[in-house]
Design goal:
single chain; 223 residues; alpha/beta; 5-stranded parallel β-sheet; 9 helices; 61% helix; 11% strand; CheY-like_superfamily; phosphoprotein; Sig_transdc_resp-reg_receiver; Response regulator
Length: 223
């Protein structure tokens, strides 16, 4: 699997590169958003690991440039940051990211997260391909696929927030803004799950859902 690491911290890039290569990944790297966009003109990574806080063109702006280019818009991007997401981040970029990892993390944890993400993505792409074969309504299948992708991403964001900030959320530390952010993510997740589940039923695609996604849909429908 080929990874593109985008981070202006050269020391971290060296650590990530060495550690991930030892774990079987092919790794290329860029030290800025501009460098990343140039790299993507000649390289097609399986996953991009994008730092958010970078000078010049930050990770969010780089992400939007990737999504606006037909040649690169489908490349999965996992955002990396030591800074918590804000409500503004969720509203502006939540539908465009594929995942979110909070620094610091161990290389083993990073490797596991990438492998799990890639496995799920391959299952998703296979399901989308089969859905197009099963249904004659290509536009609705595309809507189903995009809502499913966003639903799964938002569901995982909920998990990240609960895992990283569980103590803060339990204590109700409102000054951090965490409860408000989690509520907004949950609301967006619920909206996407309803659309996704409705299209799944309408198109007769329930057999294509993984057990994990079925469980998530059922859970969200109860909320």
């Amino acid at each position: 699997m080929k990874l593109l690491i985008v981070d202006d911290n050269k020391m971290l890039v060296e650590i990530y590169t060495t550690g991930l290569m030892e774990r079987g990944f092919e790794v290329i790297h860029s030290v800025s958003g501009f460098d990343c966009l140039n790299t993507l003109k000649t390289e097609v990574p399986d996953v991009v690991l994008m730092d958010i806080m970078m000078p010049g063109m930050d990770g969010w702006e780089t992400l939007m440039q990737i999504r606006s280019n037909p040649e690169t818009k489908s490349i999965p991007v996992l955002m990396l940051t030591a800074k918590a997401l804000t409500i503004e981040d969720i509203n502006s970029y939540g539908e465009y990211i594929d995942g979110f990892l909070i620094k610091p993390f161990t290389l083993n944890a990073l490797s596991e997260r990438i492998n799990n993400f890639y496995k799920i993505r391959q299952e998703y792409l296979s399901a989308v391909s089969k859905a197009h074969e099963m249904s004659g309504d290509s536009d609705k299948v595309d809507q189903w696929a995009e809502n499913g992708r966003q639903f799964y991403t938002l569901k995982n964001l909920v998990g990240v927030f609960e895992e990283e900030y569980g103590d803060i959320l339990k204590e109700g530390a409102v000054y951090t803004g965490m409860p408000d952010i989690l509520d907004q993510i949950m609301e967006k997740c619920l909206t996407r799950s309803k659309i996704f589940y409705s299209l799944t039923d309408e198109l007769g695609l329930s057999d294509l859902l993984t057990d994990e996604l079925k469980d998530a849909c059922v859970c969200m429908r109860r909320n």
